[in-house]
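Retro notes (design track)

What went well: tokenization of the new backbones is finally stable.
What didn't: we kept losing track of which sequence belonged to which structure.
Fix going forward: every design gets posted as structure first, then sequence, in one message. First example under the new rule, 385 residues:
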């Protein structure tokens, strides 16, 4: 199996960009009597690359525009078509036919709103590994592309010329991406999403049951006698996974006859730095708490660091539970109690459902049941091995 990893797409222009005809011009040697080779200029047929140079777009965008793809905005389509007409461009139908054949390649788009030098979310790496293995077992290649949800990724569909379908992976706001997902669907693209099932959203989803996982975590803390349990993560629709985890936290408290305290809700994105900052803010607020349910392991690890800085023990003073079960969770000090997402099953289901879509079937979106893994950070007994 071949795994190709590419960075976020960047358009590049090479050659003589101000005069594509000059860049395309060639000298073709012809033999004349007397053994003299005379250079004769031959003007080749215009290509999609020439149009791309003049229109300052990618060749993939040229191809989509000439096919009236809804992924290209009307202004760009009109500009591309006008340049094609000026150059008397005619598409190579044989090459177009080759492009429509199955590539036996899937594309994985990973979305993270982070800087280029930031480490990749280890949960995504775990899921990437299982997606790669699932594709390999089926004789498929995997093309990986790192994107940001804030980018115009839905029009960067150059991958479609090399992949039979897309897997979209990443925490983030798919709600504001709804129009992009709809345009992707309207184009006939095959894609599945790792993320929460949201009513009215386009696409097929595979996801852990975030709400049920959070309820397990908070019920366990309650069973250990903890009553002032803080939630650190997000409760807004911009982070649907975290919103569902917060909903599970609230439900578990209410089932126990407790009223959630707004003072124990601290917003944080999924990083250790954000977790540490949230932990410090919670401590500085003066609100009393004896446990923390963090929306991700990375947040939980950051919180434990903040607690230690203030001289508090985990779990003696504050019990901490995370979510994801990243690789370092079991080896952290103390080992982190967490809600484990079944990344192996997730990888299998994402690949299988995408292949079913490509084959013309209609798979159902699916929830995967998570599992609470009890370790030392919550003060409870260790999980059976």
């Amino acid at each position: 199996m071949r795994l190709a990893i590419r960075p976020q797409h960047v358009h590049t222009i090479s050659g003589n960009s101000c005069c594509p005809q000059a860049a395309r011009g060639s000298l073709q040697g012809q033999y004349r009597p007397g053994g003299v080779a005379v250079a004769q200029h031959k003007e080749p047929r215009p290509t999609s690359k020439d149009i791309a140079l003049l229109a300052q777009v990618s060749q993939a965008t040229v191809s989509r525009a000439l096919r009236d793809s809804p992924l290209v905005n009307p202004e760009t389509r009109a500009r591309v078509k006008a340049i094609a007409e000026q150059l008397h461009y005619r598409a190579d139908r044989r090459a177009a036919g080759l492009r429509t054949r199955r590539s036996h390649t899937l594309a994985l788009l990973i979305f993270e709103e982070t800087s280029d030098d930031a480490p990749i979310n280890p949960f995504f790496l775990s899921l990437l590994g299982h997606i790669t293995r699932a594709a390999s077992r089926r004789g498929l290649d995997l093309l990986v592309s790192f994107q940001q949800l804030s980018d115009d990724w839905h029009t960067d569909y150059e991958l479609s010329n090399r992949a039979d379908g897309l897997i979209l992976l990443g925490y983030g706001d798919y709600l504001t991406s709804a129009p992009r997902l709809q345009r992707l669907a309207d184009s006939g693209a095959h894609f599945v999403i790792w993320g929460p099932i949201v009513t009215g959203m386009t696409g097929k989803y595979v996801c852990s049951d975030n709400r049920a996982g959070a309820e397990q975590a908070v019920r366990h803390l309650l069973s250990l006698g903890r009553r002032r349990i803080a939630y650190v993560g997000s409760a807004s629709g911009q982070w649907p996974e975290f919103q569902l985890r917060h909903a599970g936290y609230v439900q578990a408290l209410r089932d126990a006859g407790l009223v959630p305290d707004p003072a124990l809700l601290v917003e944080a994105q999924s990083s250790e730095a954000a977790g540490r900052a949230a932990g410090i803010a919670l401590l500085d607020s003066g609100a009393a708490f004896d446990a923390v349910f963090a929306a991700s392991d990375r947040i939980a690890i950051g919180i434990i660091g903040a607690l230690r800085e203030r001289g508090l023990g985990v779990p003696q003073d504050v019990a901490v539970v995370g979510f994801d079960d990243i690789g370092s969770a079991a080896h952290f000090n103390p080992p982190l109690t967490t809600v484990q997402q079944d990344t192996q099953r997730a990888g299998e289901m994402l690949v299988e459902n995408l292949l079913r879509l490509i084959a013309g079937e209609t798979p159902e979106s699916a929830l995967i049941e998570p599992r609470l893994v009890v370790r030392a950070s919550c003060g409870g007994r260790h999980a059976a091995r």
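Added context from the reviewer: The chain has three domains: 14-29+36-98, 105-207+343-367, 210-342+372-378.
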